[in-house]
Amino acid sequence: MNSELIIFGGADRPPLTRQEREEARRAAVVKGQVRHRRLQADGALALGAHVMDGLKELDNYRKQQAGDDVDINLLLGEIEAMTIRQVKHIQAALYDGWGA
Question: What percent of the chain is modeled with pLDDT above 70?
Fold first, then answer.
C-alpha cells in the first residue's frame, strides 16, 4: 500500500532523518484524528439506528393505543411529536461537542 500515512523506517533502511521523523509524527497525528472521526461516525450511525428503531416502535405503539379513536390518536400524536423533538435535540447536542 502506497500512502503518505505509512510510518517511515524498516529493517533495510538507514536511520531516519530529522525531516522523516517529523513527517512520521505528523502522519501519526493525522492517523489518530482519522481514527477519532471514524469512532464518532460509528457512534453517530449506531445512535441514528437506535433512534429510528425507537421512533418506529413509538409510532406503532401510538397506533395500537389509539385504534380508531381520532381524538386519542391526535393526543398521542402530539406526545409522539414532542418526543421526536426531544430526541432530535439530544442527538444534535451530542454532535455540537465534536467541532464538526
Answer: 84
